[in-house]
Amino acid sequence: MATLAPSAGAPAVTQNPDIRYLGRLLGDVIRAYGGDKLYKQTEYIRSASVDRARGIQGADVTDTGLDALSLDDTLSFVRGFMLFSMLANLAEDRQGVAAEPGADVASALGRLEDEGVSRDAVMALLDDALVVPVLTAHPTEVRRKSMIDHRNRIADLMRLRDAGRTETDEGENLEEAILRQIALLWQTRPLRREKLFVADEIENVLTYLRDIFLPTLPALYARWERVLEARPPSFLRVGSWIGGDRDGNPFVQAPQLRFALSRACQSALGYYLDAVHELGAELSLSTELAHVPQPVMDLAQASGDASPSRQDEPYRRAISGIYARLAATYLGRTGHTPPRPSALRGEPYDGPADFRRDLITIAQGLANEGDGALATGGALGRLIRAVETFGFHLATLDMRQNSEVHERVVAELLSRAGVEKDYAGLDEFARIALLRRELASNRPLGTRFSDYSEETASELAIVEAAAEAHRIYGPQCITHYIISKAESVSDLLEVNILLKEAGLWRAGADGDPPQAAIMAVPLFETIADLEAAPKIMSAYFGLPEISGVVKARGHQEVMIGYSDSNKDGGYITSTWGLFKASKALEPVFAQAGAAMQLFHGRGGAVGRGGGSSFAAIQAQPRGTVQGRIRITEQGEVIAAKYATRDVAMANLEAMTSATLLASLEPEGISPRDAARFAAAMDELSQAAFAAYRDLVYGTEGFKEFFRELTPIQEISGLKIGSRPASRTKSSRIEDLRAIPWVFSWSQARVMLPGWYGVGHALAGFEDKALLADMAQSWSFLGSALANLEMVLAKSDLGIAARYLPLVEDQARAGDIFARIRDGWAMTHDGLLAATGQARLLEKNPKLDESIRLRLPYIEPLNLLQVELLKRHRAGEDDPRIKEGIELSINAIATALRNSG
């Protein structure tokens, strides 16, 4: 009997033997390290839950086995189920359960060619394209990095097993090595004891940037060069918010910004040093056997490498000189001696372009020999691509702050400078006029002789640190300044005023346009913000100084927020609002003569934009992608999509191929259908919005119901991020961050932000045939309903009802929950009718199997969580109760995967 492996005959098992294999090994570990009693208890609970999930007669009244668990047993049991879910996730990732057909560049090119899009058109798009996943510190990853590291080592060992190996490279028996890693997982503390600091978040993200993105992107480009039969520019890059995102996080200040950039530079240059060192070992060409061009001989001569053993090896001597210069660059830019110092003296490189130029000289020299095979691809080719892609900064770091902070800081600067005593009292027209006058001059408002408030001093220090970073790491290290809660043109101009204080905005002279080294980017978040976005951007572009900056840059970015628009208006209204705002912005940008670059603020859960990125990008309105797109990736999504190089390559390729298709593929529906469908969506959105707002914001006591039904209080105490759960001390839902809002509903298996209101809209829409046509032929609605369907499949209102006793006002709780249950039933029935299915996920068997595998392993965790919450809230102070709650949150989130 293999504990934690699904019962024989369960549909998911036949599809993925890795789950059974890893489950068997986990069972062996639990028996060996937890004891036979725990093993038998776990197996009993597992089999009973599986029987209930499969509908076996009498299983609903079968003893669950949970009551027999002591507190210590409970902690061990929860860890076991959490580890099974973690290993199941690994198995599914390896078998490509989440992979989508056609989600690769080769398939996208074939599809475009079939539709008459030439290869030249693709290359022309790529010449000005930009595709960027942006890693953020939003706290939805509940697992410690140590757990993820062990999981990744198991993935590496499983790859050896795939290759038919029975031993590791070190001669260890392969199955014993896998078993040992699972045993280490079992004995590794899964919860963080201390709250994360910003420096911890920076180091965590660096492991992905250094270990995954640095080696993976050059390998992807090499693949695409073969497919395209041409060398595209480095359009796929990586970004980060960690160390620059200050919105609601008082712990991100100038020192954290400097630390993030310095560590990123250190990682990039360290990687290059290792690569150059390996090149030196490889390129042993001798002048006695090969012709060496003069530029390579010049590099060799300038290197200072006079070693007699290398006198006939100019490539090695040239590389010694390159290494010496790179080592000097490392010291100069990071302040640290490189791990492997050079014995030679070299001048630091001015920038990555100079370093690349020397590498190109080597490549061109090698190209002169034979058929040029030595110069194409290989380690040198990958290094050149890495330098082009990552520079000396590794990842572009975004800055972000709330517009209300900018307003206060600018008001103080204007007041202290004697320009305007009451900036906050000015109307929008007066603000714009005043800010434009200030932007027309390079005279700073600030002075070191003024005594500013702590907030103003901190914000000025941040922009000074950004200017310093541009000087040290190059202008690509910081290119975007995101403005949260952007509601007006003055919100954008205020950021340019702050940038001017550090010399990052320079007024134009002699008819030249101003220069902006960092782009001010508005973030439109709520439904009202999204509706106002086109008007705001049109007015912004209408300012001559802004028009000049934008035209000189060639593009402007707008960020659209999924999380807060969902919390504000519900799932379908948010999704449709984002679509409409994107579409309405297109002519505004066209009139301004600027390429539109949308930055999608997606999260992991469907209520925060989660779901298939491949489908979501393709579902964007035609004309709004234009080869340029940035997308946030955070928390558990980073671990799921970028934990290993293979998985990262698949996800990055899906993002890229979807961008090509969304940019170049013809519209899939006729203008007549587009108009009909849009009118129908307006009607659906209005109905869904009314139902959602009535429940969440119009129902008396709903705030208390939410806070008592779900583990929001306990989630707020988890050590999973450096930022507070709320922006203010208020308990209002409006002031709660979208992440804990969504996360809490998913823990209680309600998943309310991902579906509520949609059922009311579908039920009240009279033309059911039109709905079915839209779901079938319109990629926008097809993608939205697919994500909705996944949420419904993962929700379970039967389990959610077990949380009801936690609510103090039972009468009110019953009424609210009845409305939620009715809404779920309407959503379920309406979805099936629109998609023509007899049951959820009928048309997506892989996802169906994946979810059905997990459900029996989540139910006992929910039941235990409820009991522990009862005891905790009743005042029991046994620390094991609190630990059990946090472990259950961890385990449920791991099993659900996209829960935050």
UniProtKB/TrEMBL annotation:
<dbReference type="GO" id="GO:0006099">
    <property type="term" value="P:tricarboxylic acid cycle"/>
</dbReference>
<feature type="active site">
    <location>
        <position position="567"/>
    </location>
</feature>
<dbReference type="GO" id="GO:0006107">
    <property type="term" value="P:oxaloacetate metabolic process"/>
</dbReference>
<keyword id="KW-0456">Lyase</keyword>
<comment type="similarity">
    <text>Belongs to the PEPCase type 1 family.</text>
</comment>
<keyword id="KW-0460">Magnesium</keyword>
<dbReference type="InterPro" id="IPR018129">
    <property type="entry name" value="PEP_COase_Lys_AS"/>
</dbReference>
<dbReference type="InterPro" id="IPR033129">
    <property type="entry name" value="PEPCASE_His_AS"/>
</dbReference>
<dbReference type="GO" id="GO:0015977">
    <property type="term" value="P:carbon fixation"/>
</dbReference>
<dbReference type="InterPro" id="IPR015813">
    <property type="entry name" value="Pyrv/PenolPyrv_kinase-like_dom"/>
</dbReference>
<dbReference type="GO" id="GO:0008964">
    <property type="term" value="F:phosphoenolpyruvate carboxylase activity"/>
</dbReference>
<feature type="active site">
    <location>
        <position position="138"/>
    </location>
</feature>
<protein>
    <recommendedName>
        <fullName>Phosphoenolpyruvate carboxylase</fullName>
        <ecNumber>4.1.1.31</ecNumber>
    </recommendedName>
</protein>
<keyword id="KW-0120">Carbon dioxide fixation</keyword>
<comment type="function">
    <text>Forms oxaloacetate, a four-carbon dicarboxylic acid source for the tricarboxylic acid cycle.</text>
</comment>
<comment type="subunit">
    <text>Homotetramer.</text>
</comment>
<keyword id="KW-0670">Pyruvate</keyword>
<dbReference type="GO" id="GO:0000287">
    <property type="term" value="F:magnesium ion binding"/>
</dbReference>
<dbReference type="InterPro" id="IPR022805">
    <property type="entry name" value="PEP_COase_bac/pln-type"/>
</dbReference>
<dbReference type="InterPro" id="IPR021135">
    <property type="entry name" value="PEP_COase"/>
</dbReference>
<dbReference type="GO" id="GO:0005829">
    <property type="term" value="C:cytosol"/>
</dbReference>
<dbReference type="Pfam" id="PF00311">
    <property type="entry name" value="PEPcase"/>
</dbReference>
